[in-house]
Amino acid sequence: MKRQEGALRLMMEQAQLGDATAYRTLLEQLSSLLRAYMRSKLTQMGRNVADAEDVVQEVLLAVHTRRDTYDPSEPFTPWLYAIARYKLIDHLRRSKMAHAEGPLDAAEAMSDGFDHTAVESGIDMEKLLATIPQHSQRVIRDVKLDGRSVAEAAAREGITEAAAKVRIHRGLKAMTVAIGGRLWREDR
């Protein structure tokens, strides 16, 4: 993956600058990577591998609509796989709700492969967000969790982009301190 990181990152940077060929190549390579990733995840959960293609398309669409939120100074693949994880979780939620009216046995079988780690991570994130001021929570949710641009988050809050960036930075720093304190207490 490290070899691919540099190439993918470069293609994304070029795509952000308007290079259509680099963007097309990037999407083709991402399709292959994501298809393998989704098939693996769905297989591990005992889910229908045929759903992988639907989730891949959702991820590619999210990459397309949110490509302006990618910061070229950061690694590309964590950004990509964060989107992929969220889209997979969304798919699992939708498919669980779509089958909610089915027989009890089907509902139990469906929950057998559910990714409890993702749910627990979401709960941990909520607890962690609760440790910082509300105004920082909102901007971090908008930018880091919902994929909005800093400009969009700032407009929603009625503040400047610089102020939004400061809120994100301070909020993440406070969350890091909270994690450090929690880890230290757990080690004792």
From TrEMBL:
Residue ranges of every copy of the RNA polymerase sigma factor 70 region 4 type domain listed in the record: 126-175
Residue stretches spanning the membrane: none
Family matches, as InterPro entries: RNA_pol_sigma-70-like, RNA_pol_sigma-70_dom, RNA_pol_sigma70_r2, RNA_pol_sigma70_r4_t2, RNA_pol_sigma_r2, RNA_pol_sigma_r3/r4-like, WH-like_DNA-bd_sf
One Gene Ontology MF term: DNA binding
Gene3D superfamilies, sorted: 1.10.1740.10, Winged helix-like DNA-binding domain superfamily/Winged helix DNA-binding domain
Similarity comment text for this entry: Belongs to the sigma-70 factor family. ECF subfamily.
Designated name of the protein: RNA polymerase sigma-70 factor (ECF subfamily)
Species this chain originates from: Sphingomonas trueperi
